Amino acid sequence: MSYAIDRQEIIDTVYMSQGEPAHPGPLPESPLYNEQLAKQYTEYDVAKANEYLDKVLPEKDGNGMRLLDGKPFSFVIEISNSFKEHVDSGKMVAKYWQAVGINAQAKPEDRSLMYERKNNNDLDAMIWGGAGGRGAILDTR
Predict the structure, then answer these.
(1) What are phi and psi of 60, to 5 degrees?
(2) pTM of the entire structure?
(3) Cβ(100)–Cβ(1) under 8 Å?
(4) DSSP 8-class letter at 73
(5) pLDDT of residue 71
(6) Which of 55, 61, 70, 38 is nearest to 1 (CA)?
(7) How do strand 71-72 and strand 67-68 relate by DSSP bridges?
(8) Average pLDDT of 94-122?
(9) What are the residues whose beta carbons fall under 8 Å from the beta carbon of 45, sequence distance 6 or more?
(10) Of 44, 72, 68, whose CA–CA distance to 56 is shortest?
(11) Phi, psi values for residue 136, rounded to 5°
């Protein structure tokens, strides 16, 4: 699913071309930075995404959406509406995943509701920020 995300388009569209594709983690100036871990699987390659997804979710319905045990494979990505860039990028990620047959839906909502749902383990996935740089040393979550 990582290969299905056009990170450069998100950067160009949501973040005004500021940044470069990478996974969350320590930034290059951190002593904990690992370039291989930061960059692996970040290339945008829909064919490769489909190749890997075909290995684990080969069945599709009439609309091209992938099935798991004969049922639609779907999930909701909950996003705090406190951060417009999270909402915008989350909607883009859901669109990319839909293009490879993953029925992902972005759901912007109030932060307190999202955290209540998270604390009750009542959500599929969520988007929230993370620290880089020395944050991995200072905030060990």
Answers:
(1) -135, 155
(2) 0.90
(3) yes
(4) -
(5) 95
(6) 55
(7) antiparallel
(8) 97
(9) 3
(10) 68
(11) -65, -25
Between 68 and 33, name the one with better pLDDT.
Answer: 68
Backbone angles phi, psi at 49, to 5 degrees: -60, -50
Specify burial of residue 112 (Cβ count, 10 A radius: 0-12, 13-18, 19+): exposed
> Cα–Cα distances in Å, from 136 out to 24, 37, 129, 130?
11, 14, 13, 9
| pLDDT (average), residues 48-71 | 97
Residue 90 near residue 127, CB atoms below 8 Å:
yes
Q: Where is 38: in which H helix or E strand? A: helix 35-39
Task: Tell me how far apart the alpha carbons of residues 94 and 117 are, in angstroms, rounded to a whole number.
Answer: 20
Whether the CA torsion 2, 133, 80, 83 is positive or negative: it is negative
CA distance 113 to 61: 33
Per-residue confidence (pLDDT) for residue 129, from 0 to 100? 76
Rounded Cα distance between 30 and 38, Å, is: 12
On whether the CB atoms of residues 78 and 107 are closer than 8 A, the answer is: yes
Task: Assign 128 a pLDDT band (cuts: 50, 70, 90).
Answer: confident
Q: What is the pLDDT of residue 26?
A: 83
AA identity, residue 10: I
